[in-house]
């Protein structure tokens, strides 16, 4: 593998820099003269979480592409998927801009389908399943790392809350993506092992099944509450602090 293939793009580094800058703003929100600490903490949380979610979207798609590359699909290299550059995605608007917008407005971390994998070039069914699971795996690992950072470094309250909320979003993304629904990664993981009839059904349902799920999450409060309750249980199961994440969510959507 060429070293330049996995070198982060300037766009990805810029998104990462915004997330870090937001974190610094939260951490030192009470140190800025002639400013309201609460306003600075809210602004910093909004920037850190929104840009942090953008970073996680790039890492999610990088996970798919990296495992595909190792599994035999050399096309992902030439398409630039290994540079974490969202401009290289199949549709940057639906892959990055729309998920960020929905997160900012509704607080729902929707995934964005972004990289095209040539499944015919992958070595076997196990590799196909691994490619699908690699994206959610990155979300899970990132969520756990954020929780560990809160526990080990014990940052200021609002920074801990912002990091916890960002970690909670990663766990939600993990739970959402591993659902065995056509069009999601959970279905992609089991699809190679299904019968031809089931695969044909999945191919037909792939364009609209995720849309129905997302519409239910956005438009049906009861359905959304059940899903978030499951995600909350998963978050606490891996060591998350739901109360702290709740405060982070309030700071992120400070206008509510």
Automatic annotation (TrEMBL):
| PANTHER family linked | ZINC METALLOPROTEASE MJ0611-RELATED, ZINC METALLOPROTEASE YWHC-RELATED
Mind telling me which CDD domains this protein's record contains? S2P-M50_like_1
Protein family according to the UniProt entry: Belongs to the peptidase M50B family.
Localization, UniProt: Cell membrane
| Superkingdom in the source lineage | Bacteria
Name of this protein: Site-2 protease family protein
Q: Alphabetically list the UniProt keywords.
A: Cell membrane, Hydrolase, Membrane, Metal-binding, Metalloprotease, Protease, Transmembrane, Transmembrane helix, Zinc
Biological classification of the source: Bacteria, Bacillati, Actinomycetota, Actinomycetes, Pseudonocardiales
Biological source species: Actinophytocola glycyrrhizae
**Molecular functions (GO terms):** peptidase activity
